[in-house]
Each structure stands twice: as C-alpha cells, then as structure tokens.
Amino acid sequence: MLCREAKVLLADLSLGDLPAARRTEVEAHLSSCASCRARVEAIGESVEALRRAADEERRIPVPPVDLSRILPKGTSVPLLRRILRASGRIAAVLLCAIGLASLLSAEARTDGRSLTLSFALPGTGARNTPGIAIPPLALEVSPLIRREVEAALLPAFRGIATWMVESEERHAEAMSLVARWLDERRVNDARLLASALASTREGLSLTQEAMLEVAGRLPDRRPGW
Amino acid sequence: MEAAEDRALVERTAAGDARAFEAFVRRWEGPLYRFLRRTTGSSDLAEEARHLTFVRIYTRAGRFRGGSVPVWLFRTAWRVAANLRRDEGRAAPAFLDADPNLPDRAPGPDLRLADEEERESLRASLERLPPRDRAALWLRVAEGMSLAETARVLRLPPSTLRYRIYLALRRLKREMTSPSGSGERHALS
Lengths: 225, 189
Prior knowledge:
The structure holds 2 protein chains of 2 kinds.
Chain A: H1 3-7, H2 10-14, H3 20-30, H4 34-58, H5 79-85, H6 88-101, E1 105-110, E2 115-121, E3 125-129, H7 143-164, H8 168-183, H9 187-198, H10 201-217
Antiparallel strand pairs in A: 1-2, 2-3
Helix pairs in contact in A: 5-6, 6-7, 7-9, 8-9, 8-10, 9-10
Chain B: H1 2-14, H2 18-40, H3 43-60, H4 69-88, H5 116-127, H6 131-142, H7 147-154, H8 158-177
Helix pairs in contact in B: 1-2, 2-3, 2-4, 2-6, 3-4, 4-7, 5-8, 6-7, 6-8
C-alpha cells in the first residue's frame, strides 16, 4: 500500500471504522512509514480533542424545545390532565366526549396524482373520497367534542397541506378550496386547512398575500365549548 | 433497539400522536442543538434552526419511508440551517467566543478537559474550517455517525467526504498547535 492510498484511510483508522482487512493493510503500511505514523498520531490527537469537547458539551444543559409553538392547540396538554381539572358532572361529560373523539382516526394518503383522506367518526360512518374533496365533518360534530375532533384532524390536514404546497398548481387549488369552503359556510374546515397551510414554511412563503386575504374572510370568533 | 424506537416514534408522530412527537423531540433536542451550534457558530441561530427542523419533522413525518432516522433528522437540520443563513443574508458566523450563551469558560471540577488553552484553541480552530467540514467532523466524531451516514446527511460522495475529513483533522491539529493560523472564516454554504 502506498502513502497516498493509506493516508486517506488514517481518519477511519483513528475512528475505529475500518473493516478488519483494510485495517491490517494500513497497519502494515504504518509499520514501515514514519511519515504516515506521524500523520495518524496528529489525526488521533485531533479526534481525542474533539471527543473531549463533545463529552464536555453533553454535560451542559441545552435550552428545551418549546412544543407549544409546534403542536396544535389542545394536543400539548394531555387530555387526562384536562379532565382531572374539571369537576363532578362536567368531568363525566368530558370523559364521554373525549372517549368518542379518541375513536377518531384520520389518515391522508397520496399516490402523487390524487389525495385521499379517510376517517371514521362514530355516528357519521367512514368516508373515503378520491381527489381533494373532504366531506364536512367539523360542522356536524357536537360542540362538546369539536375542539378534540379538530385537534385529531389537524395532523391529517397538515398532511394535505404539505402535499398541496409541493406544486404551484396544487397550491392554487388549495387556496381556491379554502375560499370555496368559506362560501359554503364550512368555516371550521376552511380554518383548519388555512392554518395547516400556514404551518408549512413553503405555504407561508408562497401564499402570504393570498393567506392574508383568506384570513380576513375568516370569522374572528371561534366556535367553542 | 434505539433505531427501532426512533422509527416507531416517527410513525406514531405521523399518525398524530403528540406524546410520541414529544418523546422524539426530547431525545434529539440536545444532539441537534449541539450540532447546529457547532456548524452555525451561533446559539441563537442554532435554536431557531432547531425549532424549524422539528416543525418540518412534525409536518413531514408521514413522508418518512424508512432508513436511518438520525440521517433524516440531521440532513433536514443541515438544510434548514443553510437556508436560514442564505435567507437572512447574514455575515460569516461570529466567533464562538462572542456568544454570551456559550458555556462558562471556567472549567468545573468534574470536567475531563482540564486544559483551558486546548479548549479555546479547538474552538478557534474549528471556527476556521468550512461549515461543511465542521459538520462532518462533529457528526463523525461527536455523534459517532458512520462515513456513509455522514455522507448522506451532507450530500457528499463517501470517498470525497473521507478525504475532506482527513484534511480537516490534519488542519485542526496544525491550527491548534499554531493558533495564529490563517484566520480565514467561512460562511455557511
């Protein structure tokens, strides 16, 4: 083995990342080459200094991630904790409501040409719709569990939003969908999709003006409990 | 075991499990922050890049199609950090020394790195490396990533990366033993 072949392997040797056969070859070269021995010693010292620095840094606490800036409202606090804060009959009602909402499962899948959103909600049955037609659900849900349903739906809407902002054509379709839902008074669905679009960096940068226009048409007051 | 756990957390995040996402974040927020701080040279930028990385992970968890979760995570972080620097048109990263959020320089009694001079010399020497080389060294040495994994994170051919790491380690040693060095700084690219 020549020096020019051995020296590029010296870092892997110092990191203990060479296959056994290669290691044998390099070590055989090192036994007869003082220059490469000096190189591997220098590299080894750099590796050890880096490892010491890394060990030291691991002992230092890092600022924690603020999950409330990432997760949708209602999902950052465990549901059980919210239930325990309520009292008496209100707690019992919440338990039933949240129990129903926990049965909701939503999934968004795409084959690259069309998007299918499928979900099942007790009392309404499963809906599987080709294309980007999303049947209205939020408006049909009892106000008692609407927030939980929306929180459960939001990840699926985010999947839709991510898919939609991948091309300008689909993105334009997403914006017209939001506008159409507002005209059809599907306010909650429009709000969900608009907020999901806004949560994607691409969605925000591509449609800032359009989003502001849509947001201006959204009612300020959010239907709640 | 850890690889399987990571994949399970990502799959559950994609299914809307907020607790799984929280567990994933808590597991990786430290390594990601340290990687970004070393490669960007700024604690503030590292925090911002880390936040955006986790936002992207959360919104795109459904797109993860298997393979190494750490590679996917660090590759996302690397691109986010590079975009951040490009979008904001910042100057070359400030010296690590000037960052007020850096750990206290006074070595504590439990520190294994007793040589304060070596620590400062290492920081300054790393600062003089191009960001991609800094990132490569950190992933290979501090995070223990394989050559193949590091190459996928930084989108370099493994053979090219191997040679760059070799040169970077040699340069690091030269810089540390001669702190006056070239003084050349590199913007994130």
